[in-house]
Amino acid sequence: MKHHAADLPLEVLQQFRVIYGTMRQYFRTIEQCCGLPGSQMWILQEVERTPSIGVTELAQRLGIHQSTCSQLVEKLVGQHYLEKQKNPADLRRVGLVLGPQGRSAMQRLPGPAEGVLPGALSSMPDVALKTLNINLAELIFHLRGRDDEFAQVPLAEMVRDAE
Question: For residue 1, is it within any domain?
Answer without folding.
Answer: no
